[in-house]
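Lab meeting, item 3. Inverse folding demo.
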């Protein structure tokens, strides 16, 4: 497995002042975890972005903080989508000898015969599955071959996914990963979704690493 490493330094600047670091091409972050004292860090934005773009939610990232290595999972990435850059990253320190929970991404591959033969529509139910394992045993992703879906109504559930014996699934086994529906059924779903009004979300608080307008 490829080693994903990010070099970082300890950070004393917090709050809105971190915007000064961002203007200098730096990326602020934080490391927290069980039996780990929370630590604010700062990384080179350009170099860190190269690693963050390759890592998944179950990738173990080695944080080299002033010469001390910390194994961690990426828990949250704040991004400025207009400028297409990361603003802040939360890392969870992990022990390589203790099992942890992580979300493993799902990747679909192949062509479903039901799509070719019956003009079926592929409906994706889940984008990730929550699992538990030792950090070294966490899958990078689950690749699901949909070429086994031959008829309208055929599906793949969580229980159908081949998982290594040393990995435990915590997502309900009867949850749908992918389903083939008829075009008519898909149109009905779209009409229902268009008629649903999204509830207004009110922010209860602000994060420490607040970004200036």
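The presenter then showed the designed sequence:
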């Amino acid at each position: 497995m490829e080693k994903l490493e990010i070099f970082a330094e300890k950070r004393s600047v917090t709050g809105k002042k971190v915007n000064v670091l961002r203007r200098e091409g730096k990326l602020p972050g934080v490391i927290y975890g069980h039996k780990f004292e929370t630590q604010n860090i700062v990384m080179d934005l350009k170099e860190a972005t190269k690693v963050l773009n390759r890592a998944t939610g179950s990738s173990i990232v080695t944080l080299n903080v002033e010469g001390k290595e910390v194994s961690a999972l990426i828990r949250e990435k704040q991004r400025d989508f207009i400028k297409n850059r990361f603003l802040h990253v939360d890392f969870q320190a992990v022990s390589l000898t203790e099992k942890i929970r992580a979300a493993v991404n799902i990747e679909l591959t192949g062509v479903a015969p039901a799509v070719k033969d019956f003009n079926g529509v592929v409906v994706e139910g889940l984008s990730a599955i929550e699992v538990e394992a030792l950090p070294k045993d966490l899958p990078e992703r689950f690749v699901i071959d949909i070429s086994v879906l031959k008829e309208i109504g055929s599906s793949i559930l969580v229980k159908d996914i081949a998982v290594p014996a040393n990995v435990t699934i915590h997502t309900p086994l009867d949850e749908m990963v992918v389903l083939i529906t008829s075009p008519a059924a898909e149109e009905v779903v779209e009409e229902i979704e268009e008629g649903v009004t999204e509830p207004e979300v009110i922010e209860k608080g602000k994060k420490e690493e607040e970004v200036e307008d």
